[in-house]
Design goal:
With 475 residues, the chain is α/β, with parallel strands linked by helices. Helices cover 23% and strands 24% of the residues. Bound molecules: beta-L-fucopyranose (FUL).
């Protein structure tokens, strides 16, 4: 099958919307799971927890934001309400919230403190609002949709700019034993009205759940998917059905490995831009448990996940659960710092910034030297129909090279299906140092260091002519 994006009436849907382009460029952001569960040592509260147990006596959201920034994280999504229904802000629509807790003598608002700390620290703020509510008596009735919209409106209108609204797929029974029919269209309309730049993630049209919570990734991750793929009902079907720890370790199933190859797309009439987001926790649980203090994932494991997500065309959403004090635990803070130090050091000097770029062909307007700058202002493009190209990057001196970063110009979709990377050795020979399939927003290849002053990227197969935005080379 030949997919001709250029002449496809749906072209615009195969490219990121402005709000998707914002979240694409954020790359790495965080979750903070925090609620009554933090104090009951549970992962899922059942909605009967007394408000009196919520008492983080040392809560300091600036400490969270500083720790996140040390890792290079660009945004934070707070569980404003998890499945237990307890609201971290003093919602006018329920008594089950911080206002009836000892936290700041009932005058506290965790959402406000976190949103303000994010704004002070210069990172973005996002909200998780669980549609499933095990406390609300209205759950399972039409009135619940009004209740949910009222709460959503409070969050969308009282806390400044929101970059994403995260709708969980987990959906069970409420206190009446009934399930809810969610009015997604109404929820989405509110978000578009009050926060037009915000993405709607998971049970929403803008950002796609990667399908697991273990940090597993696909070797070929496509952002162009069949229209209607992973609609809310399907997400709910694949989501966690019980508070079962094995779910958090479950990897992507064989059947879900390929979501975007030509074979997979065959027969679908429409395509949409739905970038993957990999959500996983720094610890085994989503919420803080003291007995997991010695089970914080190692910096090496976290970096491996970072390479496969941020460097594999997925967003990384890493959860760091605040503890009972209301602080990130020291062990987690240390991992974040180590991650940031490694990433900053590794990508400090882009050897390609001063290199000479040439290509075996271009369309006469979009020349390869555009590839030196990491932005979408300019791009390199061969003539339409030229689906294989070679770009050579001549460094200004010999260097030990261990990383190559390639970015497609995603404002014009995702196109590349196969590439190889070669380096010229001192004896003049070209040696293949990496190869892969999809590129998309960003691909990071890392390999045993090679001493070279010339690197070439061969795009071996592409759906339509490849359009590249950036190439970076690091030692
Ligand atoms: C799941 C929830 O059930 C977990 O508790 C957690 O919030 C995770 C991010 O999503 O569906």
């Amino acid at each position: 099958m030949y997919i001709n994006y250029e002449y496809d009436k749906n072209l615009v849907k195969c490219c990121p919307s402005p709000r998707q382009l914002i979240i694409e460029q954020m790359e790495f952001y965080a979750f903070a799971h925090f609620t009554v569960n933090t104090f009951t040592d549970m992962e899922w509260g059942d909605g009967t927890e007394p408000e009196s147990i919520f008492n983080p006596t040392e809560l300091n959201a600036d400490q969270w934001v500083d720790a996140l920034k040390a890792a290079g994280i660009q945004g934070l999504i707070l569980t404003c309400k998890h499945h237990d229904g307890f609201c971290l802000w003093p919602s006018a629509y329920t008594e089950h919230s911080v206002k009836n807790s000892p936290f700041r003598n009932g005058a506290g608002d965790v959402v406000r403190e976190v949103a303000d700390a994010c704004s002070r620290g210069g990172i973005k703020f996002g909200v998780y609002l669980s549609p499933w509510d095990r406390n609300c008596r209205l759950y399972g009735t039409d009135e619940y949709n009004d209740y949910f919209c009222n709460q959503l409106t409070e969050l969308l209108t009282q806390y400044g700019d929101i970059f994403t609204v995260w709708f969980d797929g987990a959906c069970g029974e409420g206190p009446n034993g009934k399930k809810q029919v969610y009015d997604w269209a109404r929820y989405y309309a509110l978000i578009r009205k009050f926060q037009p730049d915000a993405c709607i993630a998971v049970c929403g049209p803008d950002v796609r759940w990667c399908g697991n919570e273990a940090g597993d990734t696909r070797p070929s991750e496509w952002s162009v998917l069949p229209t209607g793929f992973a609609a809310p009902d399907a997400v709910a079907e694949n989501s966690q059905k019980s508070d079962d720890t094995s779910f958090r370790e479950k990897k992507i199933g064989e059947m879900e490995r390929d979501l975007g190859s030509r074979e997979f797309l065959q027969g679908n009439t429409g395509l949409n831009w739905r970038p993957a987001e990999t959500d996983t926790s720094i610890r085994p649980g989503w919420f803080y448990h003291a007995h997991e203090d010695d089970k914080v994932r190692s910096t090496e494991t976290l970096l491996d996940i970072w390479y496969r997500t941020v460097g594999g065309n997925s967003k990384l959403l890493l959860n760091i659960p605040p503890d009972r004090r209301g602080l990130f635990h020291e062990a987690d803070v240390q991992r974040l710092r180590e991650m940031g130090e490694y990433i900053r050091k590794t990508f400090a000097v882009n050897l390609a910034e001063t290199a000479v770029f040439t290509a075996d062909h271009d369309d006469g307007y979009h020349l390869p030297d555009a590839l030196a700058a990491d932005n979408y202002d300019a791009y390199y493009k061969p003539f339409d129909g030229d689906n294989t190209v070679t770009v050579t990057i001549k460094l200004n001196s010999m260097a030990d090279v261990s990383h190559v970063v390639i970015k497609e110009h995603i404002p014009m979709s995702q196109r590349v299906e196969k590439y190889t990377i070669e380096a010229q050795l001192e004896n003049g020979e070209w040696k293949q140092i990496a190869s892969g399939t999809t590129i998309g927003y960003k691909k990071i290849e890392h390999f045993t260091s090679v001493h070279t002053d010339s690197v070439r990227i061969n795009i071996v197969d592409s759906r339509v002519c490849p359009i590249l935005s950036f190439i970076g080379i690091y030692g």
